[in-house]
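Annotated sample (chain length 391).
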Amino acid sequence: MLLDDLMPWSTGPLRLGRDWVIAPDTGTLRARWDMLVSADEGRRRTLFGETRARTLHSAVAALPGQSAGTAWFAGEGGACPDPVRIVHGPFDRQWIIPDHRLIDIARPELWRVADERQLFVQEPGRVPGVTDPALLVSADLPDGRSPAGRPGRIRPLYRRLGGTEPNLAMGVLPALSARYARTVGAEEVLAWAVATAQPSASPARGYEVPFSPDPELWADGVRVGRQLVRIQLRGARGTERPRLPGGRRPYVRASLPARPEAIAYDADEEALLIGTGRISPVPAEAWDYAVSGVRVLEHWFERRTAEAEPGTLAAIGPGAWPQEWTSELLELITVLALLGGLESERRTLSRAVAATGSVDLELAPASEAARRPASVLDHHEEGPAGQVALI
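Output written by the structure step:
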C-alpha cells in the first residue's frame, strides 16, 4: 500500500526563506532578534533578507498556538518570542523563532495540530540508489529538510489536537483488526510503517507499506517499529531516554576545542574526533548512519561550524563551542548507534514480509477531504494586524 494512501494528509517541507530564524541554541536567536529590531529601516531591510513571500511590510496571521505579533515587522520593537524546538533535517533538534512574519512558508496547518500527543512522520526526499531508512518520527515539529536537498513530505499521525482522528485511510484500522484478530490502533500502524516501509519502484510513487497476512509477523514488525520510534522520540511522550549498555556509552575522552574545524572517525579505536577533542566509544553504526545518502553526524557538525557571511544575522552565534552541544552530540551518537543496531533486524523483517506476500486491504481511495487539513471551528486564531482569523 502506498504511504500516500495509508496516511493521506501530508505537507511539503517548511520553507524558511532566511536561515537566521533557526539556530542550535536560544541565546543566538534572541541576539539576532535584538540586532534586527534595533536597526534603522534601511539596515533592518538588509538584515531581514526580504523575499517575494516576506518583506518588512507583509501582513500575515500568527502561527497557531504562538503569541508573536501580527503587525508589520517594519514597526516591531518588542522582545523576541520564546523560541520553540524544531527538528531541522534528520535528527537535528534546533530552535526556531515562531514568528510567521519571518518564515516564507511555515505550514500553519502543522503548527495547529502540534501538541503533547502528536507524532510527525518525516518522509525524506528520495535519492536514486540509496536505501537508507525510509521514515523518521519526531515529537517536535520537523521542517522536512533533506540533507540531500530533495523535498520530502511531513505526515502528522493525528489530524486534530489531543490525538484524535488518526491521519489514516478510512477503514484501515477495522480491516487490520479483523485480519489480525486483535484491536489495532493508530500508533501500531505507525510502528509497522516505520519498520517495513520501502521505496516504491517509481520515485514518483514515494514509499510503500506492505501488510503481511501473518499475524505473528505483524506482531514482530510492530515490536521492532515501536523500538525505532521510542529511540527517535528521545524521552518525549513519556518514553525513556535512549541509553546504550554500560561499557558502550560514549564519553568525552579529550575536551572539545573552542572552535573545532573538522570531524573524523577512527574506526580502529571507535573514536569520534572533533578537532583535538575525542569521544569514544562511538560504534561504527553511529558514524555510518545516513539519511538520503548523507552521514547524520557529519551533517550535524557542519550545521554548527559552517562559516556565515560576516555582518549578517546568521553570523551571530556562540563565541565558543557550548557544553550543551557536546551533551546533544553524545545523545545523538546514542540514538544513531541504537537505530543502527536495529538495522539488521529491520532488514530481516522486510525480507520476511516480502516472502509472505503483501495483502490487499481493499480500502476505498482516499477522499480529497482526507488529503486536506481538518477544519477548525472551535477556537479563534489571530489574523493579520490582530484581526480574528476564520478557518
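Annotation: The longest helix spans residues 215-233.
Annotation: The CA atoms of residues 246 and 281 lie 11 Å apart.
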